[in-house]
């Protein structure tokens, strides 16, 4: 077949999870730094492309275009090779199969989360220093500021459930990309699934490590605030609210969406009744 069957994908995901759980700390930090940077690049590009589309093509088409551009992020992670926290939620399949330990899984998640944050905020700072946010009479920066402010003003419940839906789709994208045997197949399945998550308005904790810090860097620039129409409306946009009101509930939602609705449920379907020792295939699943 031109693709791996779901059961074969389950076995490959277990194998990939074992490899990831056993990675050294230095390798984890470097590869996760890159993944955070790749997701941030996609977030930046989607902001640039979508910042003024709505007044010409409407809200729905704007979301579609933003989602289309953002799919670049996971493509870079998987095809170029990097470690993304949300995709690594699928390591739970290796744990449930008895191929790794809970300690190793949480160790991987911890280091990768840290590396993703460093990579994301690094790109946010670099983009801030480029002054490209001044483009189109500060409207690019205004769009970035609006996005950041909206994210820290979600309720805890909204952030949590949007986080679930996000990583349910992201891990399905990783799953589908693993099934594809060639680059074109991986690009095709990644595009449609990631576009759907972004266009829907779901919350991805790693992407938010770019979206919110860039807003925090811009909130003291009067021209940007004025262009965004947010004078006296940015009191919630702080580093503390970024963590408490967004990162924590979105992180928990992402774990539920990826580790349970994809990892655990597919393990239950394909591996629970007849656990197998996955043979080495030479396939490296970087996601």
From TrEMBL:
InterPro entries on file: Aquaporin-like (IPR023271), For/NO2_transpt (IPR000292), For/NO2_transpt_CS (IPR024002)
Q: Which domain of life is it from?
A: Bacteria
Tell me the first and last residues of the signal peptide.
none
Q: Which GO terms describe its cellular component?
A: plasma membrane
Q: Can you provide one Gene Ontology molecular function annotated for this UniProt record?
A: formate transmembrane transporter activity
Instruction: Tell me the membrane topology, using the record's own terms.
Output: Multi-pass membrane protein
A Pfam family per the record: Form_Nir_trans
Decide whether keyword Transmembrane is in the record.
Answer: yes
The entry's keywords: Membrane, Transmembrane, Transmembrane helix
> What are the subcellular locations of this protein?
Membrane
Does Lyase show up as a keyword for this record?
no
Question: So where does this one cross the membrane?
Answer: 28-49, 69-96, 108-128, 159-177, 189-212, 247-269
Where does it primarily localize? Answer: membrane
PANTHER family, A to Z:
FORMATE TRANSPORTER-RELATED (PTHR30520), FORMATE_NITRATE FAMILY TRANSPORTER (EUROFUNG) (PTHR30520:SF6)
Assigned protein family: Belongs to the FNT transporter (TC 1.A.16) family.
- Which NCBIfam families does the annotation name? fnt
Q: What is this protein called?
A: FdhC protein
Q: Which organism is it from?
A: Anoxybacter fermentans
| Higher taxonomy | Bacteria, Bacillati, Bacillota, Clostridia, Halanaerobiales
